[in-house]
Amino acid sequence: MVSTCSYIDRTGKALIDASRYENAGDFSDGLAAVKVPYKGWGFIDKTGSLVIPPRFESFLSFTEGLAAVVLEDKWGFINKTGTLVIDNQFDWVESFSEGVAVVQRSSRPKRPAVLLGTPITTKVVEVWDLTHNNDDDRNDAEFLLIDTAGQILANLAQMKLEVNIDDARFSEGLLCVYDPDKEANGYIDKSFEFVIQPKFPQAGSFSEGLARVAVMVNDEEKLAFIDKKGEFVIPPKFNTDFDFQRNSSDFSEGLAAVSENLNPTLMDEETFVYIDNEGKIVLVTEFFYAGEFHDGLATVYNAQTNRWGFIDKTGKVAIPVKYESANDFSEGLALVRS
Q: Is the CB of residue 201 less than 8 Å from the CB of residue 214?
C-alpha cells in the first residue's frame, strides 16, 4: 500500500491533502516543499496551491526568506518567487540562521543541466545524501560562511575548522565548530573567535540559553548542558549510549528529551523522558522515541506498532499514534504520512 502525505492541525484534522505528491516537507516562512512526480521539488502555500514550480532536485526549508535548493547537482538559494538569488555552486549547505549560512564548496564541476521539458529520471535522494562526496572532493572542499547576498564572510578551512553537517548554524550568536587537531567541538561568535574552547566530543546548537554537549566519563559518553560561558548548568549524568543525535534533543518550550536508558534507570525498558532546565525529569513517557515540543506538541514513536503520533506536555496522547511517520509541528501544521 502506498503511503500518502497530509498536513494536520493540532486537533489532528487534515487541512491540506498532499496525496498527489510523492513526498513533502515542513512549512516554514509560509511555504512547504513538495515533490511532483517526474518534475522534482516545488513549493506550496498554506492553501495547498503550488506557488513555486517544481524543478529542483532537493531542498532545505525556507528560512529568513531564502531556501536552499539543488540544481544540476549543486546547491544554491532561491527567494520566495522561486528566483535563484545565490548561484548553485555549493556541494552542501545549511539553511540561513541569523543572517549567515554555512556552505561547502569544492572544485567538483556541475553535472550537465537537464534539458527544458525533459523529465528528471534520476532518483531524488534525501537531502544529506548529496553530501557524500569521494575523498578527492573532500580534500579540496572548504567550509564557508556566507551572508544573504552570497558574500563570503569567513573561510573555516583557513581557520582549520569544520562543522557538523547535522546542525551547522548560528544560534543565539554562536556556531558550533569542530577542531580536527583537538578532535573536539567548541563555539565561535560572529567575530569568528572562540568563546567556548573546543573540548567536547559532540555538541549541538544553543537553544533557550543552553547547548547540549557530550562528555566522556569513565569511558561512557554522557549528556550535559552548558551555558554561553561553557559552564555546566546540567552536569553530565545522562547516558547517550554513544548516539548523541538520536538519544537527546535541544531545549524547546522549556523541555529537552532524553533517552531513559540511564544509570540508574527509572523504567524497565528504554523509553524517553523530558527534563527541565535544571536537569530534573519532569515527564516520563512510554515511547521508544520522543521529539522536541513545538506548538505544545511533540512527536512520539511506538516501536511495537511502528507508528507515530503526538503527546502534549502532560504526556497525554493528543493526536493518536497511528501514522507511518510524523514531522514536528511548524507554523501550526505537521506533515504526516498514512
A: yes
* b (16+ CB within 10 A) / e for 116-142: eeeebeeebeebeebeebeeeeeeebb
Using only the alpha carbons of the chain, give its radius of gyration: 21
**10-residue mean pLDDT series, the chain (338 residues):** 87 97 97 97 98 98 98 97 97 97 79 37 32 48 94 95 90 97 97 97 97 94 96 92 91 93 56 95 94 98 96 98 98 97
Nearest-angstrom CA–CA distance, 94 and 56? 16
Amino acid residing at 307: R
Cell representation of residue 328: 514536528
Secondary structure string (H, E, C) spanning 3-51: CCEEEECCCCCEEEECCCCCEECCCECCEEEEEECCCEEEEECCCCCEE
| Residues 40, 53: Cα–Cα separation, whole Å | 9
Q: What is the pLDDT of residue 63?
A: 98
Say if residues 257 and 215 touch (Cβ distance below 8 Å): no
Give me the DSSP letters along 141-208: -EEEEE-TT--EEEETTTTT-B--TTS---BTTBEEEEETTTTEEEEE-TTS-EEEEEEESEEEEEET
**Global pTM?**
0.86
Is residue 184 a part of any domain in this protein?
yes
Look at residue 282 and tell me if it is in a domain: yes
- The CATH number given to whatever domain includes residue 313 is 2.130.10
What's the count of helices (H) and strands (E) in the chain, helices before strands? Answer: 1, 29
Measure the CA–CA gap between 330 and 108, rounded to whole angstroms: 35
Does residue 53 have a cis bond before it (omega within 30 degrees)? no
Is residue 167 assigned to a domain?
Answer: yes
**Residue reference for cell 561547502:** 104
Q: Note the pLDDT of residue 145.
A: 97
Calpha distance 308→306 (Å, rounded): 7
C-alpha cell at 116: 527544458
Domain range enclosing 165: 92-337
